Every structure is written in structure tokens, then in C-alpha cells.
Amino acid sequence: MNKQRRLILKTLMQGGMALGALVAAPGAALAAWMESAFKAKDMGEAMKNLLGSADAQDSDKVRLETPAIAENGAVVPIKVSSSLPNVESISIFVKNNPTPLAASFEIPEGTEPKVSVRIRMGKTSPVTAVVKAGGKLYSTTKETKVTIGGCGG
Amino acid sequence: MSMKIKAKASGGVVKAKMMIKHPMHTGMVKDKKTGKKIPAKYIQEVVVTANGKKVFVANLNTSISKDPFLSFEFKGKAGDKLEVTWKDNTGATGKGETVVK
């Protein structure tokens, strides 16, 4: 009896661990704050850890609105929208920031693929919006010139 | 810490805007008086629900401006109850709510 109980417990625990590993796998749904992506110092690594791949197809269906020149790097307004169907997430990367991934937004069904946010930019950098739609990655990149950096003090 | 939320419905779509009062310390800036680094304190996750259903999740990094501003749009109507919760890297949390106009 006791032996059987242990077996059940063991099986349950193994199952639980397998499930945990699945949830933690890179590229899985953005259920939680993904440390390996947000702390990555390289943009390709951040993209890969967050979205499962560093390759996104350039697309005019990803609309990125950024200022061409940001006088104050501490507050740079960014707008991203998309005309792609089945958008799952929108992520914003600033290549030359110490940690390039600035934000990632989950877009549940019924929510429009249209977000705005204000970010910090340490210096002039390309800004890339990556949209995940139907399991694929699409992106648009624009350069923003920064006159006064927003990360120092 | 407080937050401001505004949500307005038009043609079946709700435009929601919010500003959360938060220092968003990067952990890389020195306190000018003490010369010591100010420890990182920044919001990592913002979750918005409408009538209990998840409509928006924002995962944020230290590179989001102080007092984070976010806006998004979802299919909804006047009277929907919006609830916003956030959590920062130190485990601190905050909450705000509004009714869609």
C-alpha cells in the first residue's frame, strides 16, 4: 500500500517537473517575465530567448512610429500597430541600449494590435518592432537619433 | 503608488490609456549625493482585465521611462470594468480600476 502511494507520488512529481520544463521553454507563450530575454545584452540573443528565433521578416504590415530625433532620451514615445491577422504579441527592441528588449506586449484575442509606450534610449539606435502573428515573426526598424541620453544620471 | 487610467468606448472598441506612478530605477544610475548606485526597482509586468477577462499584458524592462505610460485598444463597451495590476522586480505590486466610459 505504502509502496503504491510512493509510486503515485513519484509519477505525479515527474509529471509536474516535465510540465514545468515545458512552460519554461524559450519561445513558449509569454506567460511570465522572461529574464533570459530581458537581461540579454545582445539583440539577437534577446529576440531568440523571447520569441524562439532572431529572424523576423521585414514587413510593411508592421507600422512603427518613432521620432526621427529624440531630444530627450529619457522619454521617447513609441507606437506600434499592425494590419496582420492573428497577432499574438508585439515586442520593442532598441539595439544600442544596454539591454535591447524594452517591452513585450501580449495581444489576446479581441485586443487590437496597437500599442504605445514611452521608453528610454541611451544613445542613437535603430528601434525594431517585432510582431508575432500566426506563429511567424514580422518586423519594421527605424532609426532614432538621440541628442541627450536617457539612461545616465 | 497611484495610477491614472482612462478608457473610452467608441464603435465597439475601447481605447485605454494608463500612467502608473513608479520610479523605474534601472540600477545603473548613481545617487548624486551619496555616489552609490540606486538599486534597480522597475515594473516587470502589467496585466489588464476587462470584466475579469485578460485583455492586455505588458512585460517591461528597465528601459521603460519613469512613470510608465501605456495605451492599447480592445473590443469592448461602455460600462466594462477594467482592472490593472502591476508587479515590480522587488515584488511590490499595485492595482487600479476604472469603468469604461
Describe the fold and architecture.
The complex is a heterodimer of chains A (153) and B (101). Chain A has helices at residues 2-24, 35-38, 43-51; strands at residues 57-58, 62-65, 69-72, 76-82, 87-94, 101-106, 111-119, 125-133, 136-148. Chain A has 153 residues and is α+β, with helices and mostly antiparallel strands. Chain A has 2 domains: 1-27; 33-148, Sandwich (Immunoglobulin-like). In chain A, the strands form 2 sheets. In chain A, strands 1, 3, 5, 6, 8 and 9 form a 6-stranded mixed beta sheet that branches. The relative contact order of chain A is 0.20. Chain B has one domain (3-99): Sandwich (Immunoglobulin-like), CATH 2.60.40.10. A 4-stranded antiparallel beta sheet of chain B has the order 4-3-6-7, with no helix packed on it. A 3-stranded antiparallel beta sheet of chain B has the order 1-2-5, with no helix packed on it. Chain B has strands spanning 3-10, 13-20, 43-50, 53-60, 69-75, 81-88, 93-99. Chain B contains no helices and 7 strands. The A-B interface holds A 30, 32-34, 38, 74-76, 94, 97-99, 101-108, 110-112, 114-121, 150-153 and B 13, 26, 28-30, 32, 44-45, 53-66, 68-75. Strand 7 of chain A pairs antiparallel with strand 5 of chain B.
